[in-house]
Amino acid sequence: MIDFYKIIRNKVSMPLDQLKQLVKAIYPLTEKELDDFASVWQPFLAKRKALLTLAGQKENYLYFVVEGVQRVYYLDQQDREATLVFSYAPSFGGVVDSFLLQQPSRYYYETLTPSVFLRAAFPSLQAVMQRNPAVETMIRLGITHAMSGVLERLVEVQCYSSADRFRALLQRSSHILQLVPHKYLANYIGVDPTNFSKFINSIKS
């Protein structure tokens, strides 16, 4: 199990520094705005295969991934899973639409490995956005970038062959093969694990 507090003892500001670097890459904030934004984030640990958000429950937190890999997935009435998105360091995670709309989630947020987070509760983050319009702008831009990625993925799902979806995955995130168990990657691109193994073997040969 990853010891978050050991990380804090060894490098006190490391997780918050990672958070601030990601924010700066999205939209420049003043040091005062950045410190106010960073002040609402708290450490959180989760074991492997922990369900952090359940369908039907409201997402109460926005997560920042320090270590570990997670996924958001949909489960239909026949218990068929559809993996929608992965999160890993350094990135934001959670069921973002449920969080921002404060409505019940349609999806599950699950850890695939032991995970270390910072997380911010909705009331605290809402208060920071009200105090700092630039923080709200930063979050809006971050969501816009994420939406652009979702639209690109919809094109892949509807127009690409399974082999092309695999190639697009590698072009977008070549390192993901080492991060995410392959059965979840197969589900993500909509192929069975046997075909996914064939794709893997094709790039090794």
TrEMBL record:
Entry keyword set: Kinase, Transferase
Gene3D superfamilies linked to this entry: Jelly Rolls (2.60.120.10)
Coiled coil: none
Record carries keyword ATP-binding: no
GO molecular function: kinase activity
Domain Cyclic nucleotide-binding per the UniProt entry, residue ranges: 48-132
Pfam families: cNMP_binding
Residues spanning the signal sequence: none
Annotated protein name in UniProt: cAMP-binding domain of CRP or a regulatory subunit of cAMP-dependent protein kinases
InterPro entries: cNMP-bd_dom, cNMP-bd_dom_sf, RmlC-like_jellyroll
